From TrEMBL:
Active site per UniProt: 38, 264
Signal peptide interval: none
Catalytic activity: L-alanine = D-alanine
PANTHER family xref list: ALANINE RACEMASE, ALANINE RACEMASE, CATABOLIC-RELATED
Protein function: Catalyzes the interconversion of L-alanine and D-alanine. May also act on other amino acids.
The entry's keywords: Isomerase, Pyridoxal phosphate
InterPro entries in alphabetical order: Ala_racemase, Ala_racemase/Decarboxylase_C, Ala_racemase_C, Ala_racemase_N, PLP-binding_barrel
Organism annotation: Gelidibacter pelagius
Protein name: Alanine racemase
Amino acid sequence: MPKTQETVLEIDLSALKHNFEYLKSKLQENTKFLAVVKAFAYGNDADEIALFLQNLDVDYFAVAYTGEGVALRDAGITKPILVLHPLPIGFSSIIDRCLEPSIYNEKVLNRFMQIASDKNQKDYPIHLKFNTGLNRLGFSENEVESIYSKLNSSNAVRIESIFSHLAASEDLSEKEFMLHQINSFKNISEKFKTLFGYQPMLHMCNTSGILNYPDAHFDMVRSGIGLYGFGNSEKENKNFRPIASLKSVISQIHDIDEGETVGYNRAYKSASSMKTATIPIGHADGIGRPYGNEKGYVIISGKKAPIVGNVCMDMIMVNITGIDCHEGDEVIVFDASNTADELAHSANTISYELISAISQRVKRIIKK
């Protein structure tokens, strides 16, 4: 592609296809695949990515909130969409747009059943979330009987799936706890089968669960970060291709004398003569303040240029001393070679946070 002349996020759909096919290769033929496209598909472009994956025959999609699911329906997504953290205020919209809610406590279950009944629904699909150790959302194992009693009194809803979430599937030192979670989930599923006389679809594994716990794939797996190019380990990262490249340009170059300061609060003081470049991207675009003061960096002419001073809302300044570059030259914030994972580690965070924070004001370019 031609060199960029502005700040852009390039999204490579061929890399997305590669990641999807790699993850699918880990599954049994009849195991369903759920693509997690919440948070604008982890900061990319939810509409384009979901439409592309729908054409690749993904079985399910998942979002966090009801509005995200509505937006996917408006974009033309017809496959089932699981809403992972619905709130009661959105239940009518969920039913109106044929979304499928995760039900995670008694209050939410009662409210959704009431609204489904008021809308004359029969066997509306719901998904029951169980807490097996993450301690975030979900019913406990000892609530299975009370759930059965409630659902047995109404035909407004039916259980499409029961699911849980692994707390540390990427960390093999936590394998004992992961196996404890998996066994707990199996116990829950057996209780359901005994009480209800059938077993709903089961799913528990996220990206690292797919890779590290093949015996827990059950009926469906869920992948988010893997689709976008990260395997949560140095070994697995080699099997994925990051789909996004965040690029910008040099707006201006400054000669800085020894003792001069750079940026807000005079946070950086030059120890010697140097050159800096100003780049039109800042914390309003997703490059947070923790990347400032020589923690983070960009790539210019193939070399690292550390961020100097505090990150501004719309700009960063970088040290280009010794780098052959000019105003208007392209800047790589991250791409497939200089990954978001590596940049995130420089600020003591994770790729998830960095990529999902990329502002919607950054222009998206889809490489088909």
